[in-house]
């Protein structure tokens, strides 16, 4: 970890948890009654998801890029995205373009002998999560990745996604939904015939921080005041002020949506992303840790420096709603709200390649601009971005993208030119 946008970890994390839980319980008041209300609401939402899936009705909203570009996404689709917190955007890129990118990524890694030089690093990204490590390549600066991030079609989709958020509230402007910053991430290349244990359900961008940090307490102010029904998971207030504890699972940017771009065909039973498509479920996760059956120094197993695990022991009411993405093809993009519970399904004997480029939505704000600027400097040398283990494979690679390959948008995304 080499990002400075962090908050010091308490010397005694157990004592900090005990203190925070006591304060939060006092603030909420009748915590047991409040959690009962939230659980009833969650059971109803989970039942709705399960019933839709059982009836063969789509759970994941799907829209066409042509409608996003034209501003003609049907109203019912917009409401479905808001309700589910996730969406597949068909043909964000033409299939031929995505397949060409996939081939170029294969050449890039082969010509630079990645398979021969790669050494797995336990960087904590999957710490505390059951099952195996997917085929994640710590590659950030290939030409396909840079081209996809700066493409006008991608920026159009991210503007559409950012529009679901309230970027002005509490008398302040939290971010600019119409401007992009870069959050360079990796690629996945899972080969035909591969076996993968996937990843168990979890959420990203903070674990114990969600209870301990004042900024996060402000984000979830309605939950922690007992007025959980007023909590709006689409309100951006204070989210751009969160500075997490240093670790390799923290995120130095505010991501309105996490996302990836498909580079191959993938079926729902082939080790794909699953989500609990209930954006408000975070209220349940937070309040569940404050209940009497959880020890005073425990947050339902949350561990600093690890992803926030969602388990049957504590959160079983939510897990029946885990739903895979629909089948996708090269050029489709997949998106989910940054707080959404998600997992990766297991697969035995992968049918065909399962390749993606991880590209989220990170709208312009002071927090994101600072991280993007640091990423721009890493790009110039081929180093790994600050939120990831400093493996730095590409520093000596040939064929990686250069400044000359960046458009005006690409330069701005990395802080190499001012907005």
Describe this structure in words.
There is one protein chain. This protein has 419 residues and is α+β, with helices and mostly antiparallel strands. The protein has one domain (13-413): Sandwich (Jelly Rolls). Helices cover 34% and strands 14% of the residues. The protein is built from 15 helices and 16 strands. It has helices spanning 13-28, 31-54, 65-70, 75-84, 95-111, 114-117, 143-150, 152-162, 209-212, 214-219, 221-224, 281-288, 312-315, 366-381, 408-413; strands spanning 62-64, 86-90, 136-137, 168-169, 172-173, 176-180, 187-190, 199-203, 257-262, 273-276, 308-309, 323-324, 333-337, 341-344, 354-358, 363-364. Strands 1-2-13-9-15-7-3 form a 7-stranded mixed sheet. Strands 11-8-14-10-12 form a 5-stranded antiparallel sheet. The protein has a two-stranded antiparallel sheet with strand order 4-5. A hairpin with a 2-residue loop joins strand 4 (168-169) and strand 5. Helix 2 (31-54) crosses helix 12. The chain is globular and about 60 Å long.
CATH class annotation:
Mainly Beta
CATH superfamily caption: B-lactam Antibiotic, Isopenicillin N Synthase, Chain
State the low-pLDDT regions, or none: none
Helix content: 25-40%
Number of strands: 16
CATH topology: Jelly Rolls
Q: What CATH architecture label applies?
A: Sandwich
| Largest pleated sheet | 7 strands, mixed
Structural domain count? 1
- What characteristic shape results from the CA principal axes? globular
What is the average of the pLDDT values? 94
What gyration radius follows from the Cα positions, in whole Å? 21 Å
- Strand-pairing-aware structural class: alpha+beta
The strand line-up of the biggest sheet is 1-2-13-9-15-7-3
Approximate strand percentage: 5-15%
* End-to-end gap: 27 Å
Specify the number of helices.
15
